Description:
With 68 residues, this protein is mainly alpha-helical. Helix content is 66%, strand content 0%. It is flat and about 55 Å long. The model has no long low-confidence stretch (mean pLDDT 92).
Amino acid sequence: MTDTRAPWSPEAFEERLRGKSISYHIHHPFHVMMGRGELTPTQLRGWVANRFYYQISIPIKDAAILSN
Length: 68
């Protein structure tokens, strides 16, 4: 089956791409609260711990992929 739809114009492409920004993590209520300084110290420490372990896991995951 051949796709006969015309390609998007640069303007239409940009509009569709910018429309995806509403789902970025920066719009999540938790991140909005963090940006406003509204998190409790415990919430912020939890975010830092989660981010730390997420970041240190990336090289481990990449090494596992490359070793296979």
